[in-house]
Amino acid sequence: MHRTHKACVSTAAAVALMTGGPVAAAAANTADAAGSAPAAAAARSDMNAEQAAAAALKKYPGVVESLDKDDAVWHVDVIGKNGKHAELTVDTRSGKVFTENADEDSDDSGGNKALIAAKVTAKQAMEAALAAHPGQVSSVEWDDDDDSGARYWHVEIKSGGKTTNVHVDPTSGKATVSRSDSDDNDDNN
Length: 189
What we know:
The chain is an alpha+beta fold. Strands 4-3-2-1-5-6-7-8 form an eight-stranded antiparallel sheet. Helix 1 packs antiparallel against helix 2.
């Protein structure tokens, strides 16, 4: 909407209040809002990984185990402080969180104790990975290698058509770039 048209609509709303009352003013405001709607929609952007994790944790408090973007949704796995697991989906546009699956029983095997006790959270791991290699986080995952006993955060960062893998130490927060793929053929973002 052009500035002169907005001024006319605003002036019409003022005149409507004086002469036609609130119903006419509401109609004028609706016309103005309709003219601005495309601009507001264009300004809207998709949620990033950090925002998706925060939205998931608001619905299901605990710690993020993994987060992965798939087209217009983020898939977030959360482990509650009580050991219960939930698989959540976060819409990238609206921010709405949906529970796909939630365990009724806690993990009695203790497999998530290291994750729950980790000093570095998924959010902190993403921040450390981005400091080591700028771009956009496309996934983060707690990696508990049963064979070697190594535990770390695996963060994938997309930048300039490439995917870079960064490992973040769950105790120190130190980020190590592990490998960079020269071509990003999986363009789900």
